[in-house]
Design brief:
Layout lengths: L17 E12 L2 E7 L10 E2 L1 E4 L6 H13 L4 E11 L5 E11 L11 E7 L12 H10 L7 E7 L5 E5 L7
């Protein structure tokens, strides 16, 4: 099938909804999860805790992008890198974000901080006590508790009239 049959035509008068693909990886070791505390100089999420991840480059597949982000942001070897969720983030623009959520395990070694921020192993029972990126209290437990044989979760984010984040999960119909 040629590129022209893919339905990608930016000259169309009707602007199609497009997405920027990104990855988010939660790495565990025993009862801890590795979180990145955003550098104070970051434009978004400065000093807030998040998973590891970033943009998917044009020439790479999604799995390779997740593995690359782990190498770049943590310099850590991981096992069992597994897709656990897909989130469509609607920013009320013709362009949104499609977030591919992964989990992985790390058995040894210490993460090396990057320009993105510092890395900390946080006990799972302490995660609620730290300053997380807004959606993490909802998606982190869902991602980490997903049984190995379960399909990924599907979610949609949008913002209400008061600019509050609304999270809707497809499989159970819940909103947060």
């Amino acid at each position: 099938m040629p590129k022209s049959d893919q339905g990608i035509d930016v000259s169309l008068k009707r602007q199609r909804y497009t997405v920027i693909p990104r990855t988010l990886v939660f790495i565990t070791r025993d009862d801890r999860v590795l979180l990145l505390r955003g550098a104070p100089t970051k434009r978004i999420w400065a000093n807030k805790y998040n998973g590891i991840g970033g943009h998917i480059e044009r020439d790479e597949d999604i799995y390779s992008a997740a593995a690359r982000e782990v190498r770049e942001e943590a310099s850590l070897a991981v096992d069992d890198l597994r897709l656990v969720g897909l989130i469509n983030i609607d920013g009320d623009q013709p362009t949104g974000i499609l977030l591919f959520v992964f989990t992985a395990e790390s058995q040894a070694g210490e993460p090396i901080p990057s320009e993105e921020g510092s890395l900390e192993w946080i006990a799972r029972d302490q995660v609620a006590q730290i300053d997380l990126v807004e959606d993490l209290p909802t998606i982190l437990p869902r991602a980490l508790d997903l049984p190995p044989d379960a399909p990924p979760f599907f979610a949609h984010y949008h913002y209400d009239e008061q600019e509050r984040l609304v999270i809707h999960f497809a499989e159970d119909g819940t909103s947060h």
